[in-house]
Amino acid sequence: VQLQASGGGLVQPGGSLRLSCTVSGSFFRLNDMGWYRQAPGKQRELVAEITSGGSTNYADSVKGRFTISRDNARNAVDLQMNSLKPEDTAVYLCNADGGTWNEDGTPTMWRHWGQGTQVTVSS
User: How do residues 22-57 score in pLDDT, each as one tens digit?
Assistant: First the structure.
């Protein structure tokens, strides 16, 4: 199972970016999916997450500015980021919880991470 993130870049304060993360490989289920970020010298923090049923949870710092969504047909999770601020600058990483069948018919539940995409907000 692999997660491929895309969409990062350099944007001016007040601008917008859309991140996308696609899950590929063999799995029978995708559960929660989400986006985290890590700025230099800081701990990784949750940005937003979405359940398989579409319920969402956001960090207080991004509420009203960021929107997480998922496309089950593409096995993807997207993050629309509006009104970006310099403090949003970080490496953004996606993750997904899911399950894969083993050869003996038992399931293995996992959490996988994408490689990260840089978001820089600067004038």
Answer: 999 999 889 999 999 999 999 999 999 999 999 999
Structure tokens at 19: 């991140």
33, containing H or E segment: strand 29-38
The per-residue pLDDT for 113 is: 96
Helix, strand, or coil (residue 1): coil
Three-state DSSP string of the chain: CEEEEECCEEECCCCCEEEEEEEECCCCEEEEEEEEEECCCCCCEEEEEECCCCCEEECHHHCCCEEEEEECCCCEEEEEECCCCHHHCEEEEEEEEEEEECCCCCEEEEEEECCCEEEEECC
Nearby residues of 75 by Cβ (< 8 Å), 6 or more positions away: 22, 23, 24, 30
Distance CA 43, CA 31 (A): 24
